[in-house]
Amino acid sequence: MTRFAPFDPAAHGAPAGDLRLRDATADDVDAIARIWHDRHGGDRRAAADGIARHLQAVATGDAPDAVRVAVLEGAVVAYGRCGFRDWQSDGAVDGWYLLGLVVDPAARRRGVGAALTRARMDWMRDQGADRAWYFVSDQNPASIAMHAAFGFRVVARTPAFSIPGVPFTGTGLLLAAPL
Questions:
Q1: Could you tell me the sign of the dihedral formed by the alpha carbons of 31, 81, 72, 53, in that order?
Q2: Radius of gyration of the chain (CA)
Q3: Does domain 19-178 have CATH number 3.40.630.30?
Q4: Are 173 and 136 in contact (CB under 8 A)?
Q5: Which one of 82, 97, 138, 147 is separated from 130 by 20 to 30 angstroms, measured CA to CA?
Q6: 29-40 helix and 44-60 helix, angle to the nearest 10 degrees
Q7: Could you read off the pLDDT of 72-97 as tens digits, one per residue?
Q8: What are the extents of the domains in the chain?
């Protein structure tokens, strides 16, 4: 049950004032799980357990990822992941991917998602990447518009590619942008 953010290109909230971005830690698991659950539904405890395992793998170097959180007024209001993927699937390009970005509804349209996207793209560039990849449902215009501002353009549509374990609502889009 993925719920995409409502999209109104003219709507903008107050800019996020005291916004801080940092690497996620084990202390952020419950906040990330709450944000994830609000977006996707399902079993919140299972989500928290998976998030904790992933953060542990990132911390030990077993996952080639970065997980960043956005903190506004002392509370985690968003998270974003990125990393290298060797998909070994039909049509999906191996490379550096933005792998998820979810912003708490109360913090949307304030530049939080854009700040996390810039930080994740900078991290990938620091890892030696020269191109970023991103996949999304065509039914998520808020995400598509925000990423377009970073130069992302559609390079393939399902069924020309697939991402293992990712069922798309509507048509899946694969996008790329230079770093």
A1: positive
A2: 16
A3: yes
A4: yes
A5: 138
A6: 130
A7: 989 999 999 999 999 877 778 899 99
A8: 19-178
- What percentage of the chain carries pLDDT values higher than 70? 91
DSSP string, 91-148: SPPPEEEEEEEEE-GGGTTSSHHHHHHHHHHHHHHHTT-SEEEEEEETT-HHHHHHHH
The tokens for 152 are: 């992302």
3-state secondary structure 11-64: CCCCCCCCEEEEECCHHHHHHHHHHHHHHHCCCHHHHHHHHHHHHHHHHHCCCC
Spatial neighbors of 167 by CB under 8 A, at least 6 apart, are none
Q: State pLDDT tens for residues 132-168.
A: 999 999 999 999 999 999 999 999 999 999 998 889 9
Q: DSSP letter for 88, please.
A: -
